Amino acid sequence: MKLIGFWALAVLTACSTYQEPTLPNLTLDQAVKSSLRNPVNTKRDIYRHPLETLNFFEVQPNMSVVEISPSGGWYTEILAPYLAAWGDYIISEPPADPNGYTKPRQEWMAKHPLIAETVRVTAFQPPLMVEIAEENSVDRVLTFRNVHNWPGDEGKQAAFNGFFKALKPGGILGVVEHRASPKTKYDPKSGYMLEADVIKFAEKAGFKLLGKSEINANPKDTTNYPDGVWTLPPRLKLGDKDKAKYLAIGESDRMTLKFVKPTSKQR
User: Are 114 and 73 in contact (CB under 8 A)?
Assistant: First the structure.
């Protein structure tokens, strides 16, 4: 009887201490500071300002949020845990990844399977694949340093049209993009975009500009380099050539734009 009692006590003790894994329930500040993030990525917060940027885009934990082409998953490490418990995080990206850009993100997802199970993936490859979510279904569409990658004016306009269709009336589109200087000759192959052009694509799709922020501005960036924006960190395409110079400049000057899909009353 004593032996049976011992094992019964052991089982009861084990049951009382076991806890079913749960999804994180974080504030935005906690998500940004979370140990879930890769330390290599957190070092770039001084250039990317995730807390200020996501607050500017008014992202809340119970929202449905589409991130466009997150690639290695820099923002995924913040948004996926932040939205896991109450929201809906959707990744929309090209169906093929021949260069392996998404590998770091996939590895992060594998380490956090409970969070990964909450993430949806849809196809995005303008101008043909732009149905990133059901019509009028999401609260936020966010794109970070992607607009320059979409092919020509046709691809860019198709992308913004798709964003408009997916957002609920009153939903917000947040855009962060390398900003070309109006003081130098604009090179469309440089990786930079003219702010006026980005606004033009958005407004043509039906959006209204809600606001601009200088959160991600860098006045040291002249935007005029041998290999475009990729000359600067984190890419440092020239390798050790003038490396100290480009590290001193830091990452690119970026526009941060907030657009709204008008409600019927706002139109």
Answer: no
